[in-house]
Amino acid sequence: MEKDLKKMPTPAASSTESASLSTTQARLVSKTFKKRSTWASVWRQLRKNKGAIAGLVLLIIIIGVALAAPIIFDYNTDIIQNNIRERRQPPSADHWFGTDEMGRDIFARVCYGARYSLAVGVVAVLFALVFGVTFGAAAGYIGGAFENIMMRLCDILSSIPSVLMAIAVVSALGKSTLNLMIAVGVASTAPFIRVARAAVLTVRNEEYIEAARAIAVPEWKIVVTHILPNSLSPIIVQATLRVGSAIISAAQLSFLGLGVPAPAPEWGSMLSAGRIFIRDHSYMTLFPGLAIMVTVLSLNLIGDGLRDALDPRLKS
Amino acid sequence: MSRYIVERLLMLIPVLLSVAFIIFAIMNAAEGDPVYSVVSADATQEQIEAARIELGLDGTLIQRYFRYVGGMIKGDLGTSYVSKRDVMQTYMMRLPNTLKLAAASMVVALVISIPLGIIAAVNQNSIRDAVSMVLALLGLSMPNFWLGLLLILLFSLRLGWFPSAGYEDGLRSIILPAITNGTGLAAFMTRATRSSMLDVVRQDFLRTARAKGVTERKVIRKHALRNALIPIITVFGVQFSNVLGGSVLVETVFAWPGVGRLVVDAIEQRDIPTVTGALVMTTMLVTITNLLIDIVYAYVDPRIKSQYAKKGFKLWKRT
Amino acid sequence: MTKVRTVLAILLCMSIMLGVLGCSPSSTNETDVPTDAQPTDAEVEQEEEQATDDADAEVESETPDASGEYKDRIIIGVANDITTLDPQGSNTDANMMAFTLTHETLVEVDPETNEIIPGMAKEWTMSDDGLEFTFAIPENVAFSDGTPCTANDIKFTFDRAKDSSFTKAKVELVTEVEVIDDTHAKVVISKPSQDFLMLLAHQSMSILSEDLVNDDEFGYQIGTGPYAVEEWTPGDQISFVKSEHFYGEEPPTQKIVFRLIKEESSRLIALQTGEIEVCIDPLTTDLTYIEEDEDLELVKIPNFVMLYLAINNEREGLDDVNVRKAIAHATDKASMIEIGYNGEGFVHDHWINRDQFGWYDDLQPYEYDIEKAKEALANSAYEPGDLSFRVIYNDTAKENMALILKEDLAKIGIELELIKLETAALKGILNDAALDYDFCLYQFTDNLGTDYTLRNQYGSFEQDGKLVKNGSNRANMKDAEFNRMIDEALVELDVEKREAMYNDIEVYLNEIVPIIPIATSYINVGIKEGLGGVRWNGTAKHDYRYVFLEQ
């Protein structure tokens, strides 16, 4: 089985978003993961990666800003209150990032917006992770017709362009922050199903699993206590990278007017509101855009770092 | 091999039926009766019922679905609720624009990613590697519509080099949308190029080549690049669906009348036949492209081909 | 061997790429195929003719010859998509603009004087009792495919209009259309109406051909106007070419194109870079770019687009007139204009549209005053904090206006939740019999006479002993007294008396406050210097029939 997996082609339709990821995974998961000691070594690996550390630092700052925002700013007066007389002011000492078309301070809104973007990204990915891993692991473990159906469903989900899928879901459910999370989550479930299934497949015939089975450990317990923890690393890498793309997807939907409802300071909707003023007031689009970019970059740097750290080939 | 192709093509049928069903269900899940978005406020009950029948909105969801599928099998994707035009025809009018944009974006992505990927791999763990990878990641981390806006700001408004909207100006029109779309793809491709180059660089035949005294540059050019093709083709396949549909934001920003915008506009107008039809067509294109890519794969990598030949293909054992 | 494979692989890759690139030009040509599913023979012929015309035109436009003093092709950048080519199939202004080119109505309204002027009917008579109109059309009127147009087609159009939910309100009074001979038709109405001819001037009452509509699924897109539809790519653009069979004065421009560019700033940039000749509705914040540009000209037309807050008068809380008055006092119209129209607009306090007959100058407006709003709410059955409502709307400008309202309503203890919807979903909710909304920021555009405005906006009719609201009565107001007042005013022949009656109706509505009128504004259009011949229209249905651009 394991041998097969290495040699089998990776048909494009069923490989994950990033090609290198899938090849990496195949090798990666073929080695049994040793719990605690491995985490320490992952951290050692990660520490050597300057990019990942930079990403981590950035992310911690962003999370800090998100946590501190409600303490520093009052939602009702600083974030959503209109101030028509001060609208569309360029950056100044009073308004570091300028003011938007309703006279609201863009700096305060960008800071506060981190809460929305991070929340949407994380919840959407959690949604995809829970569903994807459950179905993927079940598919890998049970096999047979169920597996076959799940994988076809995966193919279907991934051949519908994810943005369009998310747009359709939001327009069906109605506009709200929760629905945005669900829509983005649904659109990113397929890769998790694949990763989880692939991971489970590689470990399910290992000796210690056979041993557990031999002593009549219940099936679900085997999956939860033995198989999943040993298939964790590709799932973690996938999740980290997915949070970044989920944030972008959410911003895209907001940009099309399908995201977090006004007047909440979500970055995508700020971009959308500012874009018509791009000629004279480009700061309205510049700062929210930069915020998205920095956040997603930090997540991608960490994700890449984690992948390298978890990749046994790169250990010298 | 040919059996494999036939099997894959047969698989298309259930896939397309399911896509139609999923989209049908989603579009009908929205609140309110779609017939009211089509008729006038002054419509009488009879007129509303007449419109319902004319639009095929009568009957249960399942009945409507089977009616739709009945048409789909005959190649009839229905008629738009709004424009009253044939959906297939409308889709075909938009498709060339999207394909043009997709191709141009791919070219941009290749131009960026291959050099970056090679530089990164050859100088593994050096500063050049880091810079290349961060550059690639930057492309991935930017919301593409935002990049599009910035490009318009600089190249259309400030410098006036390229048009900001439309597609009439030939090559000049496509450059900005292609760059916008291509940078995101480039990130995936750079990654793919780098990691497959790394695989190759470590392999024995390269060591042998080096040992024989062939220069580094020649080795890379001759052996390594060829092997880098495989992951790039894969990325092409994986990203194709997103290029087809996902460029909707770029299409919005640059007023590029492609398939993505068609779908978004139709969703906005709750034009169920157009949404379903366009997504079914897109899925079909994506699936066929993926099949083509698998075939290309087999040619590039002889090991894969021999596998098909020996074992046939087991659909459910793919990874 | 490996080499061969490599080459093969590269070739295959390239062929995928090239295939994608290469197939596009040929497919683009396919868009020249008529969009109709089954064109009639006549149409096919015409398409071919047009195709060759088109080729000529393009050559000419590149090398203008001495005789061509006008540009051959004018491209108009529009903001809203054309959704149907059936005049009776919708009532959006974006669609109507196309029909002024391709079709004709019996009579027209002069956009400047608001008077009825001849359209297809060059003369008409009204019987003494005001119930019979006889229209005479020229003998040589023909549809753009050559089919002659007769009085029979007028009858057909009116009959068809009765069946369409979009046009039936306009022909409600018509009891009979009698074909006298090929060039004369008599229209009989049930009661005298001072505004009847205005309704016939609406583009949705464009004359259609009975034969063409019955024979061809898309026969309705062929009219007797000076232009014919050449090619329509829904969601992108529509082009018109001169009709070979137009009987009137030949238009100066060979080809007119409406190109959809949704992004306002992109549309203006397209005008500045010369990609289009006319830019409808640039952003109000961008108008200075047009004024500063020597090659461009700014046209400002006061519009008849009235923005208002529709209140569902039957909702609990909103059925209390004092609550409605409180909301009226809490509506900061000036700030909304500032935000929504960049300050360029007029506060609207009246119940009919600007400049309409019956406008009452001494009407007491509900000025923006939070204290008065609090007082009004105190007179109602509700306490501050009791009420919370939802407002629906469909675009960003309205969203910003709703934000202002939200803040002001919060000050008097009414909570407002903002719900942005897609246009179709919004229409769906408004049209759905369930009427599941509290407020809607909405607008109506019309200049079809005071009666039509009042009847549509606030009127209702009796059905099975109950009052049923008219379709576009978004206030869901059902008031028998009001219905009686407008019915009386409609048939009054004495102009002064009639005006006084409408004044009274304004005062009556002012007490009920069924909606909150907010503002009207300007239609802004950016054009290339030297462009002329357009009859600009405050209802946004500009008439481009004789547009030209001097070379």
In short:
With 319 residues, chain B is an all-alpha fold. Chain B has helices spanning 2-29, 45-54, 61-73, 87-122, 127-141, 144-158, 171-202, 204-211, 216-246, 248-253, 259-269, 272-300, 302-311. Chain B folds into 2 domains: 2-73, no CATH class; 88-269, Orthogonal Bundle (MetI-like fold).
Describe the structure.
- The complex is a heterotrimer of chains A (316), B (319) and C (551).
- Chain A is built from 15 helices and no strands.
- Chain A is an all-alpha fold.
- Chain A has a single domain, classed as MetI-like (MetI-like fold), CATH 1.10.3720.
- In chain A, helix 11 runs antiparallel to helix 12, helix 13 runs parallel beside helix 14 and helix 14 runs antiparallel to helix 15.
- Chain B is mainly α and 319 residues long.
- In chain B, helix 4 runs antiparallel to helix 5, helix 4 packs across helix 7 and helix 4 runs antiparallel to helix 9.
- Chain C is 35% helix and 22% strand.
- In chain C, strands 1, 8, 9, 10, 11, 12, 13, 14, 15, 16, 17 and 20 form a twelve-stranded mixed sheet that branches.
- The radius of gyration of chain C is 26 Å and the shape is globular.
- The N and C termini of chain C lie far apart (64 Å).
- Chains in contact: A-B, A-C, B-C.
- Chains A and B meet through helix 1, helix 2, helix 7, helix 8 and helix 13 of A and helix 1, helix 5, helix 6, helix 7 and helix 9 of B.
Offer a few descriptive terms.
heterotrimer, B: mainly alpha, MetI-like fold, 2 domains, 76% helix, C: alpha+beta, Dipeptide-binding Protein, domain 1, Dipeptide-binding Protein, domain 3, four-stranded antiparallel sheet, 22 strands, globular, disordered N terminus
Present the secondary structure layout.
The complex is a heterotrimer of chains A (316), B (319) and C (551).
Chain A (H helix, E strand, L loop, with lengths): L1 H6 L11 H10 L6 H14 L1 H23 L2 H5 L26 H37 L1 H16 L2 H12 L3 H11 L1 H15 L3 H8 L4 H12 L1 H24 L11 H8 L8 H28 L6
Helix pairs in contact in A: 3-15, 4-6, 4-15, 6-7, 6-9, 6-10, 6-13, 6-15, 7-10, 8-9, 9-13, 10-13, 11-12, 13-14, 13-15, 14-15
Chain B lengths: L1 H28 L15 H10 L6 H13 L13 H36 L4 H15 L2 H15 L12 H32 L1 H8 L4 H31 L1 H6 L5 H11 L2 H29 L1 H10 L8
Helix pairs in contact in B: 1-12, 4-5, 4-7, 4-9, 5-7, 6-7, 7-9, 9-12, 11-12, 12-13
Chain C lengths: L1 H29 L10 H22 L10 E6 L14 H10 L4 E3 L6 E3 L4 E4 L5 E5 L14 H13 L10 E8 L2 E6 L6 H5 L9 H6 L11 E7 L3 E6 L12 E6 L3 H9 L5 E3 L6 H6 L3 E7 L2 E7 L9 H9 L3 H8 L4 E3 L22 H10 L7 E7 L2 H16 L2 E7 L2 H9 L7 E7 L4 H9 L1 E4 L2 E4 L10 H12 L3 H18 L2 E14 L2 E2 L15 E2 L2
Parallel strand pairs in C: 1-10, 1-11, 15-16, 15-17
Antiparallel strand pairs in C: 2-3, 4-5, 5-7, 6-7, 8-9, 9-10, 11-20, 12-20, 13-17, 13-20, 14-20, 18-19, 21-22
Helix pairs in contact in C: 9-11, 10-12, 14-15, 15-16
